[in-house]
Amino acid sequence: MQAPHVEGGWQTETMPELPEVQAIADYVDGRAAGLPIRRVDVASLAVLKTADPPYSALAGRIVDRVWRIGKYLIVTTTDPAVGGVDEIHLIIHLSRAGWLRWSDHLSQTPPRPGGKGPIALRVHCGLPGEGFDVTEAGTQKRLAVWITRDPATVDRINTLGPDVLGLSRDELAAVFADTAGRIKNVLTDQRTVAGVGNAYSDEILHTAKLSPFASARSLDDDQLTRLHGAIGEVLTGAIARLEGQEVAKLKGEKRSGLRVHARTGMPCPVCGDTVREVSFADRSFQYCPTCQTGGRVLADRRMSRLLK
């Protein structure tokens, strides 16, 4: 896995968001759909958030499809004896530092439980050597895996807002009219709209020419139209850019397509102004004063809890 890129003292955002999860789903679906799962190795029991069905129940089943709900990766499996009437879903939330690595040369030796390596889960499917590892870098372990017969029984999925790409302009306007808070917070609150994280919210707001601190409820009709158009432009553009890319290259492709996020101190590609940053305890966001705030530089409220 590629080392994190550091820009201006902050790690560039590589958290998988909607475009990356969609690209991972498409990539793995194209390789695993129709293949049998031979076994599942769990190196970190802490990532498993469910116990019934057990992870061992996936062995012998067929991968039906790989898809997503918001930023959650869903591997749907079926019993070859009865087909689609008996689905079991492997649900993966990669969180901030998780990733998935497909390989045609997986080791047949199970990863050591409780080991210090990045591997949390290994799924063997198809021929010996085929399958994927679910990994997590760093010390903050937030990767989560559920095995369930119905994704709706997972609380985190059950409380997700509508998929952000599925909203019409009027539906988006209705969501924002009912939601208090700054627009940056609202866009990244998965209970309000699902799919957007820190990086793409910066890109969307830059494209829409909106301040991250603007009130969601105060947006006028023109601003809502720009926001809806920017969501489609940024996310569908990223999906198109990532289409067909190997999973190992997705992080680099994401970084290459960012115009303001993690570009502190660099010129805005639209107007040439310097991209600025607002920093918090564990993350930061970037914006262009000329494009988004009428030239005003926002206060850098480091250690603030405003944008969790």
From TrEMBL:
Source organism of the structure: Williamsia sterculiae
Domain Formamidopyrimidine-DNA glycosylase catalytic: 16-115
Keyword Zinc-finger appears in the UniProt entry: yes
Gene Ontology molecular function: 8-oxo-7,8-dihydroguanine DNA N-glycosylase activity; class I DNA-(apurinic or apyrimidinic site) endonuclease activity; damaged DNA binding; zinc ion binding
Keywords: DNA damage, DNA repair, DNA-binding, Glycosidase, Hydrolase, Lyase, Metal-binding, Multifunctional enzyme, Zinc, Zinc-finger
UniProt name for this protein: Formamidopyrimidine-DNA glycosylase
Transmembrane segments: none
SUPFAM superfamilies (alphabetical): Glucocorticoid receptor-like (DNA-binding domain) (SSF57716), N-terminal domain of MutM-like DNA repair proteins (SSF81624), S13-like H2TH domain (SSF46946)
Reactions it catalyzes: Hydrolysis of DNA containing ring-opened 7-methylguanine residues, releasing 2,6-diamino-4-hydroxy-5-(N-methyl)formamidopyrimidine; 2'-deoxyribonucleotide-(2'-deoxyribose 5'-phosphate)-2'-deoxyribonucleotide-DNA = a 3'-end 2'-deoxyribonucleotide-(2,3-dehydro-2,3-deoxyribose 5'-phosphate)-DNA + a 5'-end 5'-phospho-2'-deoxyribonucleoside-DNA + H(+)
UniProt record, GO biological process: base-excision repair
Gene3D superfamilies: 1.10.8.50, MutM-like, N-terminal
Record-linked Pfam families: Fapy_DNA_glyco, H2TH, zf-FPG_IleRS
Sequence ranges assigned to domain FPG-type in this UniProt record: 259-293
